[in-house]
Amino acid sequence: MSEQEIRRCALGADDVVLVTGAAGVIGKVVVPHLADSGLRVVAVDRAPFTSPRAELVLVGDVRDRAFVEESLRPFGRPVDGVVHLAAIAAPGQLPEDETLAQNVQGAYLVLDGAGRAGVRCAVAASSVAAYGYAWAGRDLSPPYVPIDEDQESVAIDSYGLSKTVTEQVGAFATRRWGMPTTLLRFPFVGDGKRLASQLARIRRNVAGNRRELWAWLDTRDAAYAVHAVLTSGLTGHHVVNVAAPDTSATVPTADLLERFHPTTQVRAPLRGVDSLVDSSAAHRLFGFEARHGWRDEAAL
């Protein structure tokens, strides 16, 4: 591939961005966030929905090749960027093979299709579940914390596997077409009532969140991360953690580790309620810093 064929993730005002999964937890916040920044948004989901800030709303399944191809050229030319959020959002909603098949097929058709169409860059949702702890069905502990992107996946559930394969699809699209792809490893994402409900569950039973390592992110910060990537100037393929700097628990992080993950090596000082997920790569690559915290009641 020649240097001239390599694209750059540097979108600006009036560029068109296709957002799949636009009616989902993250998507419905991403769409107005991008629109407020001056981007023109084409919102896609598979069931009828409203998205007042989108310039165009399309209803269809991202596993339908023809629909994806049409969505990538809504105004007769390729969109400038793609934000792929459409996926089965958690295990247990469908049989395991269907979770894997739907998530991977949708990612392939959208990301490979975007690269083929000439889209300038793509961002897609992965998950910290790709590490393999969250939905393993048995207690597994990370070899070290804070967890960074160098830590290998030990996934033994189909959802975690679907995310690791989705990341590989992104890498494939970058190698094949020169389109920058950034896969964001999100933890639990929420704000408002959704976040308040999650926090209440953890207050009642801190052990119940041990496999997710008490990681979380405000939905508004997830949208901010997406926009930061689209305007970052990045090239190439990246997989990055994007989590809040603290946990979703009131118990000190060191105490949580000692109680639930005693074999895990601590590679950096853990102060107070520091997160066990290292998001420093996101800061280094596209300047991400979480702006919203749950410990301030006004944030809920």
From TrEMBL:
Keywords, in A-Z order: NAD, Oxidoreductase
Pfam families in alphabetical order: Epimerase (PF01370)
Start and end residues of each NAD-dependent epimerase/dehydratase domain: 17-242
NAD is among the record's keywords: yes
Highest taxon of the lineage: Bacteria
Family: Belongs to the NAD(P)-dependent epimerase/dehydratase family.
Name of the protein this chain belongs to: NAD(P)-dependent oxidoreductase
Organism: Plantactinospora alkalitolerans
